Amino acid sequence: MRRRPFLDQRRQSSFKRRWQQRPWWFRLAVTLLLALACFFLLLALRGSPDPDPVVFPSTDSSRSEATTSPLLRQRSYLDGVSDAFNMTDEMLSAHSFSRQLMDQISLAKTYLVVAKEANNLQFAAELSSQIRRAQSILAHAAAHGGTVTEQEAEKAIRDMSVLFFQAQQFRYDSAVTIMKLKGQIQSLEEKSKAEAEKSTKYGQIAAEELPKGLYCLGVRLTMEWFKTTELQRKFTERSPSVQSNLRDNSLYHYCVFSDNILAVSVVVNSTTLNSMHPEKIVFHLVTDEVNYAPMRAWFALNDYRGATVEIQKVEDFTWLNASYVPVLKQLQDAATQNYYFSGSGNRGTPVKFRNPKYLSMLNHLRFYIPEIYPELHKVVFLDDDIVVQKDLSELFTINLNGNVMGAVETCMETFHRFHKYLNHSHPLIRAHFDPDACGWAFGMNVLDLVEWRNKNVTGIYHYWQERNADHTLWKLGSLPPGLLAFYGLVEPLDPKWHVLGLGYTTVDPTTIKEGAVLHYNGNMKPWLKIGMEKYKGFWDNYVDYSHPLLQRCFTH
């Protein structure tokens, strides 16, 4: 028996492989098209004159069955598909050289991509040449309104088939292609993760930096304070009535602990401007020694509608020492300092936890409010990154139902619940706290200092801080120990009192409009360049950029 040429055998094998690689829906469609073509061929043969006709018995019932047969119904559907996709007889023909060329071009383009990825440039160039050749044949036939002849297509189809066989030798099959694509996806994911880590790191650095304008303001205020004795007398020679306001429990007492002069100014300014009785407001401010003089100078230079402002420095609280405060004791430990700044073990501490604010006593001073103000009964604690939009006097009449704190809860479904902040794999946490307990936010909190003292919340805070000396209960920050210290002692407030998220996410405009306190929690503070522009306006409304000192230090 005569042996078939090698290329013919290879071409069939290549077509078979390509056919098996086609999606199931494509093979089904081609099968249906071929069946339709055969049906048309049979109709043509029956309609043509036959020299020796054979008469088949025919009945009305058989004609009826023929006209309603599934085959004819299928033909009607495929005719609709052909019209919808503008298919020609040439495209549907089983012997069409045009269709073979188009199929080869599609497959060749796939191999071309894989060849370039494998850096096989010579093979890629040959594929490109054959693709252009096949496209040229199809274009020539279309331009002359004819079909592709066997003479035109045979060599192009054979040459392309040779390249397909070579591609299979290079292992350019579907499985390999999929593996390469998976590898590329994994590589892109790793790059994306690395870029996200860089973004977080740079964002944290930007959040920690002191803007030039704020530094300039602090320097100029310090100069003003020491060269102007009149400013100093405003704080050192206060009237007895002002001194009594600091202890009068019939007034509205707010406390803010911060080293940011302009941010504290916005808190005080927005609170007094939106208050119906600003003369009843008393602000208790605590800062550090570096900002003590400029903070006093600023509030001596400006009036806030008759509100009383007290300024202290944390260094004067000599009772806050390492023998009493667990955090200060831990900060003296070299291992703790290493954990804060460089991480422990092989994996470093996440960059967001390496913020100096976690080392600042100003951040932990909120747990000692009853001792700082022993004569007060109720205060509202405010962070320095908030803006007040409504009168807050109603907060002092809210019934806390025997609880120590009034706060807005932040849990939504599984978000901001205890298990997001605490290590519930630790037996001590697991035994005492519900992992699904709802979290709440610092930033605007009503504090009943009488209940605080009765329930010894500061002692509870010390207990958990001492248990977390090895950082196994939680990482860093003041919120996790706050959740533990005030567990079961928090009265939920209406969410309108405290709107969060303006420093890191998008907040519903209606929620912002109805909110009493807007909180820029997150890294994108409104006084930083990385602050969210769409929310900066709420903060800027309470900054008087016409002030001579601000004009010298800020270009707005």
Automatic annotation (TrEMBL):
Its EC number(s): 2.4.1.-
Signal peptide: none
Transmembrane segments: none
Major enzyme class: transferase
Keywords: Cell wall biogenesis/degradation, Glycoprotein, Glycosyltransferase, Golgi apparatus, Membrane, Signal-anchor, Transferase, Transmembrane, Transmembrane helix
GO molecular function term, any single one: polygalacturonate 4-alpha-galacturonosyltransferase activity
Coiled coil region boundaries: none
GO CC terms of this entry: Golgi membrane
Pathway given in the UniProt record: Glycan metabolism; pectin biosynthesis
A family per Pfam: GAUT_1
Family: Belongs to the glycosyltransferase 8 family.
Protein's UniProt name: Hexosyltransferase
